[in-house]
Write a structure and sequence with these properties.
about 150 residues, globular, seven-stranded antiparallel beta sheet, 1 helix
């Protein structure tokens, strides 16, 4: 066997039960049932004379956060967002994503200066379903890796 790394061992695979999302003060956002942070790169293509292949150089990077929140109460985020709609001054939030490793190590990433971007669910009611609020945010700072998983 060529790949002898223990990271290929299924015993070290993590699931959602090992993850958590916190606000900037370290308070667990227990009503969030999903949290995704993605980065997207925008590149500019160029082709110098005498070169047959297109080349690219990085122009910008965008960080997007999407979160689904189970509606348990009208929480602080929702209240701040609704107040921002009324005043025209939308809130800015910081988040921490945490993934706990089997050996007690932790991957923690801090997302600062996140603002509403795209669709935000204000209300969405469906018979028989758990009521959720979907959030779409743009992160205006580079995420910071505070700690990483180890095996």
């Amino acid at each position: 066997m060529r790949n002898q790394r223990s990271s290929a061992d299924a015993r070290y695979a993590r699931s959602g039960k090992d993850a958590a999302v916190f606000n900037k003060d370290g308070v667990l956002l227990a009503s969030a049932d999903s949290f995704t942070a993605t980065s997207s790169s925008t590149n500019a293509k160029y082709n110098p004379l005498g070169n047959v292949i297109d080349l690219e150089t990085n122009v910008s990077i965008g960080i997007k956060i999407t979160m689904s929140q189970i509606v348990v109460e009208s929480d602080l985020f929702f209240r701040e967002y609704m107040e921002g709609l009324a005043t025209g001054n939308l809130p800015v939030w910081d988040f921490q994503g945490s993934l706990l490793g089997r050996n007690g190590s932790e991957e923690r990433v801090v997302y600062r200066d996140c603002i509403p971007s795209g669709d935000i669910t204000i209300q969405d009611f469906q018979t028989g379903d758990v009521i959720k609020r979907n959030w779409s945010l743009h992160c205006n700072s580079v995420p910071t890796l505070q700690s990483r998983l180890t095996i």
